Amino acid sequence: FGRYAVPNLSLILVGGQAAVYVLVLAAKDARGLYGFALVPALVLRGQWWRLVSFLFLPPLTNPLFLFFALYFFYLMGSALEARWGAFRYNAYILIAWAATVAAAFFTPEAAATNAFIGGSVFLAFAYLYPDFVIYLFFLLPIPVKYVAWLTWLGYLIGLAMGDWTTRLHILASVANFLVFFGPGLLRRGRGAHRSMVRGARRMTGRDEAAFHCCAVCGKTEKTHPDMDFRVCPECDGA
């Protein structure tokens, strides 16, 4: 399905948000943004465009900070697309979109935005490029991984103390992250656990004898845990 991928998706999203912001400024009425928000009750009444238009909702802030916010989103999205390819990046955004829409329909009268979708892009970028430096107030350099930890902490607080609407949107926002990175995190966690167990056994002197031992060189799974040990059936297991 790679041929159906939309290239430069981040540029399209950023351009759409900038255009909507300009329209709101021209109209001098911020209430116009409500027409783009995802309101499931209105979608069910025929305003189906809200399923897509909420992706182009800009953060309503100072134009200077809006510029940097959109630029940073474009930088992150472009980096992910360059690393994954257009199709995988499209799939990442699509999962976030589908999860956000599904969560919104649990509270059909409430308006949903794209804020958590942007957050999921940030978490993926911080995971893949943890040492990328951002400058707070254009002066203080901070590795992006620390900001990501604060974001995760905020999500945990929201899950613990927020209402069900907030909880559903937080879970929706991390669904694509877990799909893409969850298996790798589990493998790393299991590997770290095994390393801790081996270290504890060595420290307590209760390290078990090796189960595999090469008959030629004497290597075992204890001395070389990354080796692949196989048994020759024609040598009676030697």
Keywords:
mainly alpha; elongated; 238 residues; two-stranded antiparallel ribbon; 59% helix
Describe the structure.
- This protein is mainly alpha-helical and 238 residues long.
- Helices cover 59% and strands 3% of the residues.
- It contains 8 helices and 2 strands.
- The chain has helices at 9-27, 40-43, 50-53, 63-84, 86-104, 115-128, 144-161, 164-204, and strands spanning 133-136, 140-143.
- A two-stranded antiparallel ribbon has the order 1-2.
- β1 (133-136) and β2 form a beta hairpin.
- α1 packs antiparallel against α4, α6 (115-128) crosses α7 and α7 (144-161) crosses α8 (164-204).
- The chain starts with 8 loop residues before the first helix and ends in a 34-residue tail after the last helix.
- The model has no long low-confidence stretch (mean pLDDT 84).
Architecture blueprint of SSEs:
Blueprint: H1 9-27, H2 40-43, H3 50-53, H4 63-84, H5 86-104, H6 115-128, E1 133-136, E2 140-143, H7 144-161, H8 164-204
Antiparallel strand pairs: 1-2
Helix pairs in contact: 1-4, 4-5, 4-6, 5-6, 5-8, 6-7, 6-8, 7-8
Total count of strands: 2
First-residue to last-residue Cα separation: 49 Å
Q: Give, in spatial order, the strands making up the sheet with the most strands.
A: 1-2
Shape descriptor: elongated
Q: Would you identify the regions where 5 or more consecutive residues have pLDDT less than 50? A: none
Query: How much is the radius of gyration in Å?
Result: 24 Å
Look at the helices and sheets and give the structural class: mainly alpha
- The amount of beta strand, in percent, is under 5%
Secondary structure tally, helices: 8
Average pLDDT across residues?
84
- The share of residues in helices is 55-70%
Q: Summarize the main sheet.
A: 2 strands, antiparallel
Order of helices and strands: HHHHHHEEHH
